Amino acid sequence: MLIAILLVLAYLIGSIPSAVWVSKWVFGLDIREHGSGNAGATNCFRILGSKAGSAVMLMDMLKGFLAVKLVILSGLPHYWEAYRNLEVFLGLASVLGHIFPIWAEFRGGKGIATLFGMILSIQPAVAVSLVAVFFCMLYLTRYVSLSSITASIAFPVMIVFIFNAHELSYKLFAIATACLVVLTHYKNISRLINGNESKVGFFRKKKDRHQ
């Protein structure tokens, strides 16, 4: 019963619609009606600017991080496999809440920042490595979507071959994460193939800035 309550709490934490609240309360608009129509940090960066986008990203990351920490309330010893499995399920519940938030008509974002907060809470070293992959790809291409997809695919590779995680739940979670990110970015993948995906203004070359 306690585990079920914790999972529901994790989902409710993930459901906090950071992007929607910031866009409505500060800017008087619904971010879901602008840009890509996504209630996530990337769309906030594009439509509301870097300050709002950064604030939303941090809040979304915090949702995943805090949801995982609910495992402390379970009373399970941290060295038990059940403890580590519960961490994964709590994190996934928060990501599910972000994608389908009960507080925002079940119209949320893609869950990347919340997913990262979850990974940061469970495997900090892996999270830092994924950030490096993300920003390397962002520097090379300036596509946030492609950077997110690349980092997600790198996740199971790192878990299995670099960090040698022994827990089956971690391995399955990493593989599922890569699949989930690719699936939630199918529209972006289509735009990338067609050459009309939007680029961010970060890392622009000097000649591009003057055009």
UniProtKB/TrEMBL annotation:
Pathway: Lipid metabolism; phospholipid metabolism. It is an enzyme of class 2 (transferase). One of its GO terms (biological process) is phospholipid biosynthetic process. It is a multi-pass membrane protein. Coiled coil: none annotated. This is Glycerol-3-phosphate acyltransferase. The chain crosses the membrane at residues 55-76, 88-106, 112-136, 143-162, 168-186. Probably interacts with PlsX. The keyword Magnesium does not apply. Its EC number is 2.3.1.275. GO terms for cellular component: plasma membrane. The gene is plsY.
